[in-house]
Amino acid sequence: MSAAWQSVAAEWSIRDVGAFLLDSITGALYQPPEILREYCQNAIDSYSDLFRETHRPPINSVQVRIDPLNRSVEVFDRGIGMDLPAILQAKSIAVSGKLQQPDEYIGFRGIGIWSGLPACEQIVILTTKIDTGQLYKLVIDCADITKLIDSGIDIGTLMEGRFHIYATPWDADDHFTFVKLSNVQERYVDLLDEPAMTKYLSRTLPVPVDPAWPHADGLARVLDGVPWTTTYDVTVNGEPVYRRFPAKVKPPERVPLEAGGREVAVAWLAESTDSSVVRANERAGEVNNFRVRVKGMALGEPALFAGGTDPVTDASLLRWYVGEIIVTDDSVKPDTHRRGFQPSGAAGDVRDAIRSFYVRTVARARGWSVEKGALDLASNIAEKCDEIEQALGGVGDDDRTLRDALTQLANLQTQLANTKAKSNRTRDLTGASPAARAEAAALRKQQVKNAIAEAERRLSEVEAAVARQAPASHAVLADPPRSTRPTTRRTSRMGDRPVSTAAVVGTLHPPDGSAYTQGELIPRPAPVLVDLAVATQAFLAAARAVLGESHQAYQQIVARLPEELRLRGIAGG
Amino acid sequence: MGSRVDSSGNAVFTADTSTVAKDYVRGELDRSIIEAFRREHYPDQPLAYLGLPGPDLLDVRAWREFIGRWTAVQSADTPELRQSAEMLELNALRERLERGFHLVLGNIDEYLARDDLRPALQFPYEVVNLDYVGGLVNARDHGTGSLRLDAIRALFTHQNRHAFVLLLTVNLRDRDEGELEDHAARLEDEMRSLDAFRNVAEVFESHREQGNAGLLKLYVPCVLDGFALATGYELRFAPPVLYSGSRQMMHFVVECLPHTEQIGTRLPRFEDRLAIVNASLLIRDSNRTSLAQHDFGQLIRTGAEAG
């Protein structure tokens, strides 16, 4: 017997959706600052709509008011505003016009007004759309809703009587949206922390660069024509919110990022003025390092994508810069929490382009560090030579000051010899890392070569003068110490602490007063020479003791050590 | 300028609409006083405001260039008042006045008078605008006195000899229990007892003929002077203004300046009382371009020629 199937009418409605799903969508989604960001983002998007629908120049301002006394947070914009259809759509969850045009909006998931649901007792929205002549008021009784969300009822029943819309006549020329979160819940009290919220917004929203930053105008020129660089005048309690960067950096540069031969992002960077970490005044909201921005909004943490299972080597050197990476590929979307990209092929390409940019930038920092080290060394030698020449004029051969100065010069002489040797060794860079190549390039710069040559010339002059005028002291220069290698400058990070390879090897020294402080070896007058194999084993043992054998960083040290030694000419290739 | 006394004993003047009259008082008279006060006492700083601006923030908007931080007190006992509070917050943002804005929901008199509520206010202020809808004396239900007067007394105390401008607007109608009449009678007796004036009765009768306008003109400065005396202030009054809004309102502006000598050493001065009695009342005229001056007559010293 064959079955004759007949269709049975069955409607699908909101009554079929359990209320607890609402909590899944909104409740656990956002941290306090992210809730504020969502409302600011809606405000920003409303200016796109205003321009699209009216071609009026948008004011592009978003005003936030945080009122700890009354436990309320307000966000006000003069964007397009909402008419009744828009209000009715706004109350929907994950149903948004933005979903049809995701490339044109910053927000696109339609969570919109609901993001504050778990955070407060009531959400009130006052809004009027241009030419409607009506002011609408939308009230959501969040406290009641959240109380019943786990009670097993459906969403339709949950919302009944807890969601209200009112209307009143209003000036037809007016247009704005005002959102108020009333009686913020204790769990979300961070929303009421004005300084913290201001700092978060300054780092996240597309706000202007602090006009007092010395490079503000320069950056504007660098970013001229780059998409998604429109900024919005955001204020918190009337005070403007700016992107803030430390002043002690060089002028910004523009760096295009490509994937598959097409530009997918534009980075700008401003390098530290003194070849070290750019010191950011945290309290003033300043930042160093790089932020990735998609459609103007910053994602995740600084140096996004530099970590993970395959971290960018020496990513800490990115803190020698301030800058941003502006994703220009519109198909790349942030994930729900805006802590990374929503996975896609394009997103992977952009991610790789960003990582490649990081690697190049780190290498640049390494190279610059080496270059600066060489130039500083040459400068120090010149100074010491001047000092010795002056001393030779009026002292005896056994003068203690002269001998000390000669000892110091001998150390510098050794460092110069090492630097020069390194410069000569790095001609064959086949298979070398970008950082090693950058170091080699730095040492081959004409300016560096000239400085080294000038230092050698001065050394010869002084050595000859010493031989003539203080022959007893000449031996100090003739037999310089050999163990104070410049590797003291080569630092790395273990955990959060800078660790110098020389410092670790330095633990081999007998306890004769040698010490190292903050990762830098304090040179001893009589260094102990040890066999390289012993030193290597000791170094690895120390690293293992600090990190543990299974630590990823330790594994990397083990893997990279032979190559690093080879590149430095310490061990044969 | 015509006036009459209505069946309640209050003077009624032909006046213009509430908005125009009030705007004039706020935007012209008060504004010029606040501007001069700031120039004299706080030339290098914005002023802190405490008041009842209502949802439209008309006074704060009119004086915004002088004001830094500001505390708005708004009742929220009923749904209508809560909506007013909501609109007040909205308009603070619409008018870009949110910098230094501090909203206190409740009755300003309670906040001023009650120790447990007062921390919500951020003393001291330089401009205090008590723009009441009702009267000043309004006896408490249980007849223990006026909460409003207690509040103003407390205001002087908590300002702690910090110079400020007090703007006080009260309804001409007042549910007082004869305090205004009693006060006028006492003041009249005081003046008569000095045996220095020959027309005391005529001048006080002239005040009574204007109903509560005349009585308040005598009462408010004397009461404020009493508070000032106890808290180390000297007062500098501008002429009071009677204007017609939705109701007949009396508007007082007084600069409250710290007494230069030690607190408690100031004594009530005969000249102050004389000045209060002899002061004119300004009336906002319906022609909307000027103020009319209403004189109640001047006390004439015994032996002096009648003017």
Task: Please describe what this structure looks like.
The complex is a heterodimer of chains A (573) and B (307). Chain A is of the alpha+beta class. Chain A contains 15 helices and 17 strands. In chain A, strands 5-4-3-6-2-1-7-8 form an eight-stranded mixed sheet. In chain A, helix 14 runs antiparallel to helix 15. By secondary structure, chain B is of the alpha/beta class. In chain B, 38% of the residues lie in helices and 21% in strands. In chain B, the strands form two sheets. In chain B, strands 3, 4, 5, 6, 7, 8, 9, 10, 11 and 12 form a ten-stranded mixed sheet that branches. The N terminus of chain B is likely disordered. The interface between A and B is medium-sized, with 16 and 17 residues.
Radius of gyration of chain B: 19 Å
Oligomeric state as shown: heterodimer
Order of strands in the sheet with the most strands of chain A?
A: 5-4-3-6-2-1-7-8
Beta-strand content of chain A: 15-25%
Number of helices of chain A: 15
Report the uncertain regions of chain A: 483-525
Global Rg of chain A = 32 Å
The structure class of chain B reads alpha/beta
Let me know the number of strands of chain A.
17
Mean pLDDT score of chain B? 86
Overall strand count of chain B: 12
Structural class of chain A, by secondary structure, is alpha+beta
Helix content of chain A: 25-40%
Task: Estimate what percentage of residues of chain B fall within beta strands.
Answer: 15-25%
Features:
heterodimer; A: 573 residues; alpha+beta; 8-stranded mixed sheet; 5-stranded mixed sheet; 15 helices; 39% helix; elongated; B: 307 residues; alpha/beta; two-stranded antiparallel sheet; 9 helices; 12 strands; globular
Briefly, what is this?
The complex is a heterodimer of chains A (573) and B (307). Chain A has 573 residues and is an alpha+beta fold. Helix content of chain A is 39%, strand content 17%.
